[in-house]
């Protein structure tokens, strides 16, 4: 018996430059036996249409609520700015859809607890992702620290993030990163 793929909508995809484009889209393509990307939604229908066209996604939506209400969507991946997480996830859960939301789930503990309760009440899978810990930059830093390659760490801070394709050559050989533009 063949399993049905989960039909995924992406919220916050900007071709070649957003976290959705450089992390989620490639991952979902690699897992295409289980997931099918069927829609995208951004801050405007025009932006959604541009992302859908650039990334060969079949459908563009005008709002999170429209996407969440669609019978063509089973799961929504939320990668919008943090202040928009709560309203986006609340809309998705109110329609009984599964959701994967970038961390943090909400701006406050109360928001996160409310969304958690909604997910439980509707018996849907709701995940707050913290995948930055497996990003190429963080993994390399971790390796350098574990092997004592850079000496004792007294203090640290990260002031920026690499642009799409910035990791390609060094990390592709190690199987850590695949260029996002391959998909979008």
How do the helices and strands line up, and which of them pair or pack?
Layout: E1 6-11, H1 19-30, E2 35-41, H2 45-54, E3 59-61, H3 64-69, E4 75-78, H4 85-94, E5 98-102, H5 109-122, E6 126-129, H6 136-146, H7 168-172
Parallel strand pairs: 1-2, 1-4, 2-3, 4-5, 5-6
Helix pairs in contact: 4-5
Describe the structure.
It is a single chain. 37% of the residues lie in helices and 16% in strands. The chain contains 7 helices and 6 strands, in the order E-H-E-H-E-H-E-H-E-H-E-H-H. The chain has helices at residues 19-30, 45-54, 64-69, 85-94, 109-122, 136-146, 168-172; strands spanning 6-11, 35-41, 59-61, 75-78, 98-102, 126-129. Helix 4 (85-94) links the parallel strand 4 and strand 5. Helix 4 packs parallel to helix 5. The chain is globular. It starts with 5 loop residues before the first strand and ends in a 12-residue tail after the last helix. The relative contact order is 0.14. Mean pLDDT is 83; it is low at 161-184.
Short descriptors:
alpha/beta; about 15% strand; disordered C terminus; about 180 residues; single chain
How do you describe this structure in short?
The chain is α/β, with parallel strands linked by helices and 184 residues long. The chain has seven helices and six strands. It has a six-stranded parallel beta sheet, with helices on both faces.
